Amino acid sequence: MRFTGDKVAFGRHETFALRFGWLTKGAQALMSGDPVFEAEDATVRLGVGKNMVSSIRYWLQAARIIERSGSSWSLTKIGEYIFDDDGCDPYLEDEATIWLLHWLIASNPELATSWWWFFNRFHKPEFTGTELTTALQDFVKDEVKGRTAASTLKSDSEVLRRMYVRSAPRSQAQLEDTLDSPLSVLGLMTELSDSRSFESRPGQRDSLPPVILGFAVLELLEALGESQLPVSDLMYGPTGYPALGAVFRLKEGALLAKLERLATAMPGVLSFRETAGIHQLYVVGDCAPLEMLEAHYDDNNERAAA
Predict the structure, then answer these.
(1) Could you tell me if 258 and 239 lie in one domain?
(2) 29-65 per-residue burial string, b: 16 or more CB within 10 A, e: under 16
């Protein structure tokens, strides 16, 4: 979660943006117990090309769904929570899960460095593809140890845009080139009318459930070893750590409102106070990040069963 500059990853997506169904397909194949990603027939079993097999494995890692366990792969705790046989949303039907996956990727500087950089460090509201690539190259030059090829960073910039921008219908486009990523539904990046520029601005984010923000808050506090944090740190980020306001592209007022709703709904877990004009969030009860999610998914399951 903390960016250090010496543990980074670029270009491991094989030029493929994350696609609908990939995480589900990869997690289910892994749960079958076979070493699917190293299997000779992986392309047949996953129904994709050879490079796509590597890409699926990468995105599962970047989203913190799988991890290396000795010589094999296994689901992480959050991977099990989402994709297990009785997981909360194995087919990604709930937009809350898409927001959760966004956080899991954008707060992972070690495996999704370009994504971490864009959502935590890049704050230009309008930009061209060239400007985005140049800014990423400057960041890598200044803050990343070792050398990374310019072509690799250009590829990261392009894949990042494809993951968050909805595809415009183009009559001559191949089907493979118009398959949107699940993250495109979040509206965190849009293509402007000139088709050469993009925007990514802070907003209200009405579709972001406070409980997903709460999961991110608890993960950040856990990483910091803290039980309280000024809201300004949640908005703009402690040095080297994710900034929740930036990751979720939230206006400051929207972040405050969601935190207040969260504290009101979970008074035994969080307390939101203002002292001398400083807004502070406190963890007042034991609650693991995964337990925070139960408030949303258990309620959804009860409504579905009713």
Answers:
(1) yes
(2) bbbeeeebbeeeebeebbebeeebbbbbbbbbbbbbb
The proportion of the chain whose per-residue pLDDT surpasses 70, expressed as a percent, equals 93
DSSP 7: S
**Cα of 52 vs its chain's centroid, Å:** 20
Domain boundary among 76, 91, 106: 91
Q: How far apart are CA 258 and CA 78, in angstroms?
A: 23
Q: Which of 91, 118, 153 is the last residue of a domain?
A: 91
CB–CB of 199/131 below 8 Å? no
- φ/ψ (deg, to 5) at 181: -80, 150
What is the Cα–Cα distance from 192 to 173, expressed in whole angstroms? Answer: 19
Residues 135 and 82 in one domain: no
Q: pLDDT-based confidence at 177, cuts 50/70/90?
A: very low
pLDDT at 176: 45
* Together in a domain, 99 and 196: yes
Please count the other Cβ atoms lying within 10 Å of the Cβ belonging to residue 3.
21
Six-digit token pair at 210? 């406070």
pLDDT, tens digit (0-9, with 9 covering 90-100), for 108-142: 999 999 999 999 999 999 999 999 999 999 999 99
pTM: 0.94
Q: How far apart are CA 165 and CA 50, in angstroms?
A: 26
Contact present, 96 and 211 (Cβ < 8 Å)? yes
Helix, strand and coil content of the chain, in percent to the nearest 5, comes to 50, 10, 40
The stretch 76-97 carries a mean pLDDT of: 96
| The residue type at 233 | D
Domain that holds residue 176: 94-201
In a domain, 196, yes or no: yes
